[in-house]
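Cross-check.
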Amino acid sequence: MDDNVFVGLDIGTTKIACIISELDATSGELKIIGVGVSTSDGLRKGVVVNIDKTVHSIQKAVEEAELMAGVDVDSVYVGIAGDHIRAINSKGVVAISRDDHEINELDVVRAIDAAKAVSIPMDREILHVIPQEFIVDEQRGIKEPIGMSGVRLETQVHIITGAVTSAQNIYKSVEKAGFKIADLVLEPLASSYAVLEKDEKELGVALVDMGGGTTDIAIYFDESIRHTAVVALGGKNVTSDIAIGIRTPIERAEEIKKQYGCAYSLYVKHDEFINVPGVGGREQREVSRAVLSSIIEPRMEEILSLVLREIKRTEYAEMLGAGVVLTGGCALMEGVLELAEKVFEMPVKLGIPTGFGGLTEAAKSPVHSTGVGLCIYAMKHAKGKKGKRNLGGEDNFKKIFDRMKMWVKEFF
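Predicted model, tokenized:
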């Protein structure tokens, strides 16, 4: 596979999407050249529960994208989510004892290493160590400390951890499907690369990625990620409620949700009816859209309320100058933005992937935010990744250290 080709694999609860992109050497633009999607039924709430089914779905999605792009894929950047994800903010301090007191890259790595020295249970693995800011001799808000003079260098970092077994099962699934994992990336972090603008990250914004099994949250302020979390509810819960509420098979409930679903009951006319097939060969009957909306709205409101509770747990709840950006498949439902504005009491916009050319029509949907984001992430980190494509068998500490150095280089 060409070094200028980057592949994002979004392993979701309801769908597995593969996005193949290529960096145009002359223009420097990332172009989407292949998109493949397959149904996922080997995951529950973002976690692999059936490896064989997941392997089959991965192969199907990648094959479809390969056919469209006309390239053979060997390594992929994979998204990870699930309610096992935990994140903490940590600080590290080092002394600059050299005579000239000039800060170099090694000092920065030492400071981040000190911040990373937190107690993490044996069953958890560090996924990302992201520097938020550096403090030189009490001077805060420094993004690039290299070359500055000082006697004390302090850093604040955001550490994201996940369950070791969940990460291992993703590794196993991808490798059994015949591909190497170039990197494992937290899904809301990947999505943020595709849908958030620089000024939004600076002002303060909450990215809410509403997927099938989970709803992922990433809070940015002053251009740095400040908080990440995962709510273990998503579109599948809405589909399940519809299936039970109007007594129809799950497959039909999903179709009805996509075609007629509305999350804001004020938008629904009471004289609109839809045909609903019965369970087990029973006769189909008519159900009003108002009834359907009365089933969807409470569940969507519950998911958004849990997201709001998670946002309010942080110190940045009052600093979200750019409001909330909603993305993911669930965000496409009619009335979701209006319901979200009512719940969050702040401006809400739909997050659509940007920053790429090529097959824009195929990929320019909130459904593909994570997949496109993984490609943009891959492109930005490719320089630090040369020769380190497969992390699956590497020593865990070395893997963390390499990735940590890569995050540092993003500042310089």
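The first helix runs from residue 51 to 69. The longest strand covers residues 124-136. Passed to J.P. for a second look.
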